[in-house]
């Protein structure tokens, strides 16, 4: 009992996060995850085809 305000606050915050049009800062996310810049660039590059 007594969880009504806390749940309402969590619902409000979750709804703001879900529907905010702010987008995702991918550079900040890479930094927080500790991904090196070279790894990120390699992931964005097109894969090369290997000869058979």
The tally of strands reads 0
The DSSP helix count reads 3
- Class inferred from helices and paired strands: mainly alpha
Strand content: under 5%
Explain the overall architecture.
- The protein is mostly helical and 52 residues long.
- It has a domain at 22-47.
- Helix content is 62%, strand content 0%.
- It contains three helices and no strands.
- The protein has helices at residues 4-19, 26-33, 37-44.
- It is elongated.
- It starts with a helix and ends in an 8-residue tail after the last helix.
- The model has no long low-confidence stretch (mean pLDDT 81).
Considering the chains and any ligands shown, give keywords for the structure.
52 residues, mainly alpha, 3 helices, 0% strand
How would you summarize what this structure contains?
This protein is mostly helical. Helix content is 62%, strand content 0%.
Topology:
Layout: H1 4-19, H2 26-33, H3 37-44
